[in-house]
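Team,

Forwarding the record for the chain on the shared tracking sheet. I've put the sequence and predicted structure together so nobody has to dig through attachments.
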Amino acid sequence: MEVKIEQSWKAALKEEFTSSYFLELTKFVRSQYAQNQIFPAGKDIFNAFDCCPFEKVKVVIIGQDPYHNVGQAHGLCFSVNDGIEFPPSLVNIFKEIERDLQIKMPLSGNLTRWAEQGVLLLNATLTVEAHKAGSHQGKGWEKFTDAAIRALNEQREGIVYLLWGNYAQQKASFVDQSRNLVLKSVHPSPLSAYRGFIGCGHFSATNQYLKLNNKSEINW
């Protein structure tokens, strides 16, 4: 089947697109868009990949599933469209950037600017039904996004993995830490952010590692 996704990712994940689980997932997703209000818009399902080609990935941030309220999700984890109020976790991410790097909180929560610099903003599940958090979990998306992380781990090195919370840490547990930098903390959610996320220093540590590996730093 033909999947509209950035070409380097299409090549890296080609075996997934012909697998039985992905065909079943595609049927499910199409039926959901036909019957319900689903986020993000269909054209944005693979936005994380489209904005950050395989060979340009320098940093990986893993979320769980898309925001489920109107106007928020656009295919990048933790990111919201321009003009949308910042969700609490994103507020805490910006607070830590300000504390860590003295960069003032931006006016927009749209993180496309990060993705275009090489930050893969990957949700484990790429679609969700409106107002029903986690509604598309367990349908196959997790297997697909696991394959993306495995492809990076097998074919690339020198990548920074920012694993916030137990879910992200478990999902990327197989990443080779001898060839990449893996930074872990609690999730930036208000429930846990002040138990270790605020103060983690991940953004400066990421840039220090990139600089040491002769890569351009991220303008957070």
